[in-house]
Amino acid sequence: MPSASFSSSRSYVRRSRRKGGHRIPLPSRTQSTEPCESVPCPNNVPGSAMAATAACAGPSGSGGGGGSPPVPAAAAASTPGHHSPYDLRRKSPPAYHEPGPSGSGACSLPARKRPRTSLSQGVDVSNVSQYLQYELPDEVLLCILSHLTERDLCRVAQVCKRFNTITNDTELWKSLYQSVFEYDTPLMHPAPCQFEFVSTEDCEADNPWKESFRQLYYGIHVRPNYRPKNQSGRMKHFNTIRSALEYIEERSGACSCGAGSTCSCRRPPPPCPALVFLHAGLYQEELAVDSDVQLIGCASGNVAESVILEREAESTLTFAEGATRAYAGHMTLKFSPDATSTMQHHKHYCLEVSDNCSPTVDHCVIRSASVVGAAVCVSGAGANPVIKHCDISDCENVGLYVTDYAQGAYQDNEISRNALAGIWVKNFANPIMRRNHIHHGRDVGIFTFENGLGYFEANDIHNNRIAGFEVKAGANPTVVHCEIHHGQTGGIYVHESGLGQFIDNKIHSNNFAGVWITSNSNPTIRRNEIYNGHQGGVYIFGEGRGLIEHNNIYGNALAGIQIRTNSDPIVRHNKIHHGQHGGIYVHEKGQGLIEENEVKYYIK
């Protein structure tokens, strides 16, 4: 790379280090070499370094003759009236010199102004540009670019092909991405209320970190006590969730340029619904959402465990009418009421979804310490949420409560170890529940009662203290392709005029009968596998009824089907085999229509 050259009219001679390491100025070629008037220079060494030094420094000791030995450089530098080479860089020489101790005047050369060169005078600009653009090593350029913001990187990418390639470096965008969003894996946001972590190997984008940055860029951040290095033109940051929501409300309907509703620039409005990132921390704010806003946890490692919303009074997170495309994901919701408080908490929840709203709740951890009510409550006509991939466990009450004509889709959730039922469905509520894992509850797994409805598909229900699935008081659920097993009592319990459709399920290894039907209940049990029960397969008693058809009932400890005490079911087209205590057992005024069943290979 060409460099600026500087010329000087003064030269230097370096003396031996044994005699001092200071530089000694020589007379300029443009000036007279005559010695100073007060001290004659020796004639035998005219113009030499020693002579110039002796002449300028003056006599040494008591001998003042011209033949006196020269003063060493160190002594010369400390002699009053002498100026060090640093004086050469001054713009103007001193006005006069103080006489030395011997009364003789000191000798000095006038300081000269060093010539300056500008870039246009001494450097070829085109060569510098070529070097920066084509010859600067990639490692150096990447180090420089790592200090830029995302907007600056996009501008630099437009300079040339090489800059475009380097600014799309994966590691460069990964570092920038994690400084803003903190995620360990790129989070893709292909559509409203849809978020998915995708590994860099499985992502179709050339640069997954940059693509994720592009999709999430319009969001604002709640990051307590955080000050970004460069706020200009970047995402907004707030200390509280409430202040972020107030900002969104103020901006609703405004132009994206920030000029308000009177702006005429015709820029497109900001993406809707608004996106708010909640960074790691404990938030104890009262939070009620009645608009389209997306709330998502933002942290490294396990995101949901790092972002916690907790309340001691009132519900932790409430979605109200108007939240039709709202979202809450990747966070922990806790309701921890004060044990000494006299406030009633039977209507306070970790998560509450009320009338006429349809939010999405995704990948949340939900915990409630209240001994009444439920951890999650969905109630009211028009309540239609999507709750998926959530962990509703270790609650001191009901896990999920759906009531009062509410609907919704509930899928791939972990519901376990709750003090009461894992799920309650009541009062004409009609949810769709798929692929949930409901286990080790201290009560029933799923309880539908008082005209509760619902469609339950492919759920795994096991190891609950009471029945895996209970139907009571006019409830009429549809249960298909579920596995109900290892219950501490029965598998399915239908009583007090309960109804229901149980089709293509696997019901096995329960301590009591696989299916209980009693007290004027009338369910349909069709095409189920009912096997390996510690008692009977299907037990109908106490004026129970029902349609029992096309089931495969085998390997149970007692009778495959037992009918007693004025019960009157329809039993047909079943295979009943390999039981340890008979096929069909009717006694104690039991009756019913029993036809075209295949009964064989029973022991007794």
From TrEMBL:
Question: SMART domains from the xrefs?
Answer: CASH (SM00722), FBOX (SM00256), PbH1 (SM00710)
> In this protein, which residues make up the domain named F-box?
130-176
Ranges of Basic residues composition bias in the record: 12-22
Q: SUPFAM superfamilies, per this entry?
A: F-box domain (SSF81383), Pectin lyase-like (SSF51126)
Q: Does the keyword Repeat apply?
A: yes
According to the record, the residues making up region (Disordered) are: 1-113
The record's section on CDD domains has: F-box_FBXO11
Q: Which of UniProt's keywords are assigned here? A: Repeat, Ubl conjugation pathway
Pfam families referenced in this protein's UniProt entry, alphabetically: Beta_helix (PF13229), F-box-like (PF12937), NosD (PF05048)
Q: Which pathway is this protein assigned to?
A: Protein modification; protein ubiquitination
InterPro entries the record matches: Beta_helix (IPR039448), Carb-bd_sugar_hydrolysis-dom (IPR006633), F-box-like_dom_sf (IPR036047), F-box_dom (IPR001810), F-box_FBXO11 (IPR047505), NosD_dom (IPR007742), Para_beta_helix_rpt-2 (IPR022441), PbH1 (IPR006626)
Compositional bias ranges of the Low complexity kind: 1-11, 46-59, 73-83
Cross-referenced PANTHER family, in alphabetical order? F-BOX ONLY PROTEIN, F-BOX ONLY PROTEIN 11
Full protein name: (diamondback moth) hypothetical protein
